[in-house]
Amino acid sequence: MEISRMTVKGKGFASASPDAIAISLQLEDIKDTYELAMQHAALALEQVRETLLPLGFSKKEIRSTHFSIDSAYEHRNDFRGENKRYFLGYRYRNDLKITFGNDSKRLGEILLALSVCEADPEFSVYFFLKDRRAVEQALLESAVRDAKEKSQVLAKASGVILGKILAIDYDWGEIEVRSRVYAASSKMAYDSAPMIDLEPEDISNSDTVTVIWEILHTKQA
Prior knowledge:
Layout: E1 4-16, E2 20-31, H1 34-52, E3 63-77, E4 83-101, H2 104-115, E5 122-128, H3 133-158, E6 160-169, E7 178-185, H4 186-191, E8 203-218
């Protein structure tokens, strides 16, 4: 005998105050030769390290997330008006990342230090949760609760009785637990340093689950 089913999607919501900060730094420049690009990349990295060391960041805590050196070109018109590709040199790019506890005073000190760093990095500030498990659990509980409430409403309106849960479908996707709140070059940070006082909002998330219920029978009128 075929089992009657009811499929309902539940949506959950959860929020939490961020407890950590990440600063992503980007070092990039173009030099005439590959050797010069390598030398300047190493110099810029060392300048960042020297800037952050007095603020409590060891060499190991300044992590490189991406490094590359590639030929750089640009397209422009020649004297005949024909568009051609011209070799500019070798572009290096080094993406760095530092993380620390949510401390707005320390954040201001770090941004101010980076603003006068000779490497002239561009950077973005993110607030995030170090442990996402509590948010993920709250999201799932909220989503299942929402699905149950919707199912009960639908069952009552349809005149049926719900039985056991036959299946719960969840895609286990990555839940975003960070928020980007600031992005600037070091010069911009220097120009606006006295105004920096970042207080992030709670990080809010939503997610869905699909719950399949067994329908036992129709209520007697």
